[in-house]
# Entry
Amino acid sequence: MAKSVKWWKNAVVYQIYPRSFQDSNGDGIGDLKGIEQRLPYLQELGIDVIWISPIFRSPMEDNGYDISDYYQVDPIFGTNEDMDSLICEAGKRGIKIILDLVVNHCSDEHEWFQRAVEDENSKEAAYFYFVRTKDGKEPNNWRSNFGGSVWSKLKDGRWYYHTFSPKQPDLNWENPLLRQEIYKMINWWMEKGIAGFRIDAITFIKKDLTFASVEMDDKKRYPVENLENYPGIEKFLQELKKETFDKFDCLTVAEAPGVDEESFESYAGESGYFSMIFDFSWENMEEEADKSKPEAVERLKKRIFNSQCFNSRHGWCGVFLENHDQSRCLNKYLEEKDRNRYSASALATLYFFLHGTPYIYEGQEIGMKNAKWNSIDEMMDVRAKITWKERVEQGEDGQEVLKYFSELGRDNARTPMQWNDSENAGFTTGKPWMKVQENYREINVAKQQNETDSLLAYYKKLIKLRKCEKLADVMSKGDFCPVFEEKEGMIAYKRTYADKEALVLVNLLNQDQILSWEWGTGKEILLNNYKDIRMQDQKIVFYPYQAIVL
Ligand code: GLC
Ligand code: CA
# Structure
């Protein structure tokens, strides 16, 4: 019997950053009831799964990525009953919910940590990494992911370890009791009827227990990112899977950058630890100076093709242009003058038919852009704040650091969703927790819902096509094959399965491009972000940023 295809291979996922999506009670912060109110919108968009960034009880140092109670919805977002209701109402519309699993660390306000601080000999003290040093100095020179040391000191002289902010102490996965606590919690949520998890920062759970300093030329700290996927992590991941995910038909997608080709299959292969991992290989391109130029397109093409050619043979990835830690894709890949409906739909087409499950981040479907930042005080992100301070203290110019974060800062993705042109873009009737972008009167959902050729309308078509019966096998089982690789400024590929094939052709330049048409004769046009296809002597002349699926 043929093996059945996993449901998530033909699904489209939509990521919600709950603080910024929809406020239902006027306190200026998005919440679960707000998401529930917007279910009709999401259903019409056509997505299958919602991934909600953390909604658990939290002091909100890192907007919920610092959890103080894994079993409770934070009052800011609502109640556990609101969650039940959301799962149920979404279910009625054919939409599944996945939650964010943050188990590399918790909050320093979690009762485990509080007990560990109170009593050095408590069971909970062994849930974390505590070190005392003979000279009282910090145990090593490692730099946390958010800047500064990975170590913070307690009053009693113990140092504790944190990959991220000091308010996010790392959990000690070496401890079997702690691991059991985590599995119990995962299963509890799964049994509530969610469809799976996005797994946060999982590559950090195994530490280099020597905690040895690494000599650095420039006296700077040694980045803890260099210790991701540390040997021995396999044991934890295998057990995690066996004790939890294996018991359910669920979607698990791991934030696991830095997994090398050798271990890719064990993470994201048929029987990998996870259903899929995110493909981060083309996420950070905003620093390059040649945006919108042929060289930039070639670089992007190379990265996409490299990872697709490999991944499509060895496993499954989540593919995306944006998430809550990233700049908006229009800023990332394009110069300001080139950010428009055509380039946005070209980018969308480009990634939507790749091997993997496509993820859309809230606001991406209407072409939201990075915000304009006038000062570091406008920024809310803990990472920006800590790093800004660190760099200024090291002698860098504050304005320059601000410029860096204006391009790359995570707050860019976190400004409130732009629903309409009323005050605060329809996000809240109160004072929004973070500023709404000035451009909301031009870029908003309501406006695009009324326009047949809006980006939003295009995303609806795209989603429908990605999920249509005709393409189901090609998308879930098809090969990936680059085409016209040598054509500068174009990114084109073929997905094939049995006698079916889908051809995706994207002109990523703001200029016409000519391709010979013989290969296209007789093929059905499935999607086109322009009204027509321009022909000239057996050749097709692509418009600027034209994207076609055949
Ligand atoms: C992940 C999340 C990020 C968070 C960090 C710490 O990278 O995506 O938003 O700050 O983990 O939990
Ligand atoms: Ca609210």
